[in-house]
Write a structure and sequence with these properties.
By secondary structure, the chain is α/β, with parallel strands linked by helices. It folds into two domains: about 10-235, Aldehyde Dehydrogenase, Chain A, domain 1, CATH 3.40.605.10; about 240-420, Aldehyde Dehydrogenase, Chain A, domain 2 (3-Layer(aba) Sandwich). It is about 40% helix and about 20% strand. The chain has helices at about 30-45, 50-65, 70-80, 85-100, 140-150, 165-175, 190-200, 215-225, 250-260, 280-295, 315-320, 355-360, 375-380, 395-405, and strands at about 10, 20-25, 115-125, 130, 155-160, 185, 205-210, 230-235, 240-245, 275, 325-330, 345-350, 365-370, 390-395, 410-415, 435, 445-455. A seven-stranded mixed sheet has the order 11-12-13-10-9-14-15, with helices on both faces. Strands 6-5-4-7-8-16 form a six-stranded mixed sheet, with helices on both faces. Strand 4 (about 130), helix 5 (about 140-150) and strand 5 (about 155-160) form a beta-alpha-beta unit. Helix 2 runs antiparallel to helix 4 (about 85-100) and helix 4 runs parallel beside helix 5 (about 140-150). The longest helix has 20 residues, at about 30-45. About 50% of the residues are buried. It binds NADP nicotinamide-adenine-dinucleotide phosphate and magnesium ion (MG). Magnesium ion binds near residues 213 and 216.
């Protein structure tokens, strides 16, 4: 971690509201120095033999693997994540680094037929790449940015969210421990308005990889336009979980809470709108009730906790604001006392104009509405400015395909809610984002494609 800043930020445990750590807030000038150090480290990293860069990334993954428990414990305390989620998240960093450690020797260009010579293409790294990370999934989202960027030969400056910097800072130390050269992966804790804004405006940063709110994402895109800086955006969502009457309703109802209340609903992929075919609506709600009320909402220090607190007091206030005029159908449990707790809540909605149906809540609140037939389901699912993910529950394969193709979203799952695997592409339609992360092509998004023509006769 690089900082000589005197300003600090107190990191809280959201389950208790108590202080966990004091972290430096990097200033603008120090941010510039980190960017310059990353630029200095770039030529040697770029020019490393592909197999050597691959080997260093594999060692990095192995060192992360040896620290899964430590990283998970930091996330339980700093972000209020459950132990099982936090272990999965740390393991995801290891897996993503491992997966992209196979990329350096496979950044293939092409040979394209031409007359009088040969034509070849190269994938060349951009230089310094910035990764700006939100507080909801501090570890995975950092890894999805830095791992393919490093594999493609770039150096990275990474800003964790101000509220959740601890795992990123530790991962930066682990990279050094693994032998990744200094200056290649730089973690810069601090404010979005200072560090993040400098990433956008500094001319040495050649790409910004941003995950967070649509509002800030638009500002980042506009800022990047100034220097025609490359940008990837992963933004908000209001994803639909479409349940047809022919589905296994028991399975669909049992799974629905986990699709929206995981991480206390602070998930851009949360299926926060449940659409149920009218003939199955009442039965579905009956089945949903025990699935919601039995969810174990506990301080995540308890290993059996299935849902923890929200990240902050202001996030809690914002989420509760959605319940003011809502018709609450089901309420689960939550601990009382200190900490930023909201119980899992199901809201019955009559009209797609209701605020809770339209806006991203980013908390444990799901809205349910009936629909009539396949066309109505697709129209309602698409009646949003977002398009990140979605689920379809049906036993009819033809319908599953038609509805999956009809929903304008980047990631659809059928009879499942799994939308993120590191080896498949991930990203949003419409205002949910721009570009794709993960999957086999991610390293190419951190390169320029260069075309070289060589005449046969000198
Ligand atoms: P945010 O403001 O968009 O923050 C995301 C990241 O961007 C943080 O690291 C933040 O730094 C940084 N940032 C903020 N302003 C910036 C700027 N002007 N220039 C560069 N970087 C900047 O999101 P949030 O305030 O944490 O959450 C607000 C809402 O966004 C949530 O309620 C939710 O609806 C949505 N959200 C979506 C996702 C997602 O995965 N798609 C994730 C998180 C939040 P600081 O930490 O210093 O603010
Ligand atoms: Mg913000």
């Amino acid at each position: 971690m690089a900082s000589s800043a005197s300003e600090t930020h107190t990191v809280l445990n959201p389950a208790t509201g108590g202080a966990v750590a004091e972290v430096p807030s990097t200033g603008a000038e120090e941010t510039d120095r980190v960017i310059e150090r990353a630029q200095d480290a770039f030529p040697a990293w770029r020019d490393l033999a592909p197999g050597e860069r691959a080997g260093l990334l594999r060692r990095f993954a192995a060192v992360v693997d040896a620290h899964i428990e430590e990283l998970a414990e930091l996330e339980v305390r700093n972000a209020g994540h459950t132990w099982s989620n936090a272990r999965w998240e740390a393991g995801n960093v290891r897996d993503v680094v491992n997966y992209y450690s196979a990329a350096p020797e496979r950044l293939f260009g092409r040979q394209i037929p031409v007359a009088g010579g040969i034509d070849v293409t190269f994938h060349e790294p951009l230089g310094v790449v910035a990764v700006i990370v939100p507080w909801n999934f501090p570890m995975p989202i950092a890894g999805w940015g830095f791992a393919p960027a490093l594999a493609a030969g770039n150096c990275v400056v990474l800003k964790p969210a101000e509220m959740t910097p601890l795992t990123a800072i530790r991962i930066g130390e682990l990279a050094l421990e693994a032998g990744v050269p200094p200056g290649v992966l730089n973690v810069v804790p601090g404010k979005g308005s200072v560090v993040g804004a400098r990433f956008v405006s500094h001319p040495l940063v050649r790409k910004v990889c941003f995950t967070g709110s649509t509002e800030v994402g638009k500002q980042i895109m506009a800022g990047c336009a100034e220097q025609v800086k490359r940008v990837t955006l992963e933004l908000g969502g209001k994803s639909a979980n479409v349940v047809f009457a022919d589905a296994d309703l028991g399975k669909a109802a049992a799974a629905a809470p986990y699709a929206v209340f995981d991480n206390a609903g602070q998930d851009c992929c949360a299926r926060s709108r449940i659409l149920v075919e009218r003939s199955a609506y009442d039965q579905f709600l009956e089945l949903l009730e025990p699935a919601v009320t039995s969810l174990r909402v506990l301080d995540p220090v308890d290993e059996s906790s299935e849902m923890g607190p929200l990240i902050s007091a202001s996030q809690k206030a914002s989420v509760l604001g959605f319940l003011d005029d809502a018709e609450v159908a089901i309420t689960g449990s939550a601990p009382g006392g200190a900490g930023f707790w909201v119980p899992p809540t199901v809201v019955a909605v009559d009209s797609p104009d209701e605020r809770v149906w339209r806006e991203e809540v980013f908390g444990p609140v799901v809205a349910v509405m009936p629909f009539d037939g396949e066309a109505d389901a697709v129209t309602l699912a698409n009646d949003t400015e977002y398009g990140l993910s979605g689920s379809v529950y049906t036993r009819d394969l033809g319908r599953a395909l038609r509805v999956s193709r009809g929903i304008q979203a980047g990631n659809i799952s059928v009879n499942s809610h799994a939308s993120v695997r590191y080896w498949t592409p991930f990203g949003g339609y419409k205002q949910s984002g721009l570009g794709r992360e993960l999957g086999p092509d991610a390293p190419n998004a951190f390169t320029e494609e260069k075309n070289v023509y060589i005449a046969q006769e000198a």
